[in-house]
């Protein structure tokens, strides 16, 4: 009876049903995994950031190690140097904004006055009463939403302790990854059955190798974006050119959209400070730099093992932002780069040969010191 019932169902329907329940199981497992990661985000995010930083700093530590420096001393030197550079950049940005804020406020005030005069004397011919009522409406809206704004500020202030805790956890994880990341990976993979252990270790090494290449290449691309756009802003006399360039450098670590979003802030500043023509020139400059990055820098500094299709990058950033906000957008692309190499080597018939091919195809920034690191 059962056989007759099965025969009465189309083979296409049976195959579709078989695929459906398997896909549903995979989807359910993915949802559970994402929920676990979300609940453990306070731990997962610092560890992920630490892994990226370790991938960026490991070649310097290995180089000092090869030249005879003690491993602990090399890690301490590189970490302190990196923290000093980060603090210097942040201090520079804040100080430049503080120093340039009065000039920017004056420029914005003149722009607002000019806009008000244009609205009154231009083709709209708005009366002073209409302009006053519009201004009063804006002020009333701000006052009516003061509670929400204050609550948001207090909520932001309440996260300072969490941010500091996460930063400390990231710092400790970076130190231990640099000191013994290879040993940690060897220990973790002991949970894998022995016949597949070497394959998983080789796949992890290849994934970390791509992650290291991505981190270093992205740093170079971000530097070029900041120097090019910052130089253009300085030549045009846009206020706050240097801090804006620093923000573009930080934003460029989110591929495709990061530098564009932070660059839009430069367009706004140029609009208020110098007028529409300079704002349009700034926009053209940013678009030109983005094209240079997409068609020259990215192919040059990243090999086939790291490069990703633009659609995969955009979808990854969007998904990461939906799931985990700005941090998710920052971590999405390096995670995809890692998974890309990991899966390619894990599924290869000869993992070692596939791993060697990936490393050979990488751009010139890839260093062999990360070959066996996971």
UniProtKB/TrEMBL annotation:
It holds the Pfam family AI-2E_transport. It is found in: Cell membrane. It comes from Mycolicibacterium arenosum. The keyword Signal does not apply. Belongs to the autoinducer-2 exporter (AI-2E) (TC 2.A.86) family. This is AI-2E family transporter. Keywords: Cell membrane, Membrane, Transmembrane, Transmembrane helix, Transport. The chain crosses the membrane at residues 12-34, 40-61, 73-94, 159-180, 220-242, 248-268, 275-292, 312-338. It is a multi-pass membrane protein. InterPro entries: AI-2E-like.
């Amino acid at each position: 009876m059962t056989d007759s019932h099965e025969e009465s169902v189309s083979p296409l329907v049976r195959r579709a049903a078989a695929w459906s329940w398997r896909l549903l199981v995979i989807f359910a497992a993915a949802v559970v995994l994402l929920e676990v990661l979300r609940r453990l985000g306070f731990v997962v995010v610092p560890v992920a950031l630490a892994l990226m930083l370790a991938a960026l700093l490991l070649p310097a530590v290995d180089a000092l190690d090869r030249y005879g420096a003690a491993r602990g001393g090399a890690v301490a030197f590189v970490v302190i140097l990196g923290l000093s550079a980060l603090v210097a950049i942040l201090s520079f940005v804040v100080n430049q904004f503080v120093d340039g804020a009065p000039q920017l406020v004056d420029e914005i005030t003149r722009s607002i006055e000019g806009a008000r005069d244009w609205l009154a004397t231009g083709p709209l011919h708005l009366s002073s009463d209409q302009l006053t009522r519009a201004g009063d409406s804006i002020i009333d809206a701000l006052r009516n939403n003061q509670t929400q704004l204050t609550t948001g500020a207090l909520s932001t202030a309440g996260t300072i302790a969490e941010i500091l805790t996460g930063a400390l956890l990231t710092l400790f994880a970076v130190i231990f990854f640099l000191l013994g990341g290879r040993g940690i990976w060897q220990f973790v993979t002991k949970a894998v059955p022995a016949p597949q252990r070497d394959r998983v270790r080789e796949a992890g090494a290849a994934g970390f190798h791509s992650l290291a290449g991505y981190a270093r290449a992205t740093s170079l691309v971000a530097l070029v974006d900041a120097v090019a756009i910052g130089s253009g802003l300085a030549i045009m006399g846009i206020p706050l050119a240097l801090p804006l360039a620093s923000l573009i450098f930080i934003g460029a670590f989110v591929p495709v959209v990061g530098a564009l979003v932070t660059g839009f802030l430069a367009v706004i500043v140029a609009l208020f400070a110098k007028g529409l023509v300079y704002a349009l020139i700034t926009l053209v400059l940013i678009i030109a730099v983005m094209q240079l990055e997409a068609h020259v820098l990215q192919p040059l500094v990243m090999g086939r093992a790291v490069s990703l299709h633009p659609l995969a990058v955009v979808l990854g950033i969007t998904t990461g932002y939906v799931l985990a906000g700005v941090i998710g957008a920052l971590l999405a692309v390096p995670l995809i780069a890692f998974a890309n190499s990991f899966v390619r080597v894990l599924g290869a018939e000869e993992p070692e040969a596939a791993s060697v091919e990936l490393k050979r195809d990488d751009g010139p920034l890839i260093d062999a010191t990360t070959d066996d690191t996971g």
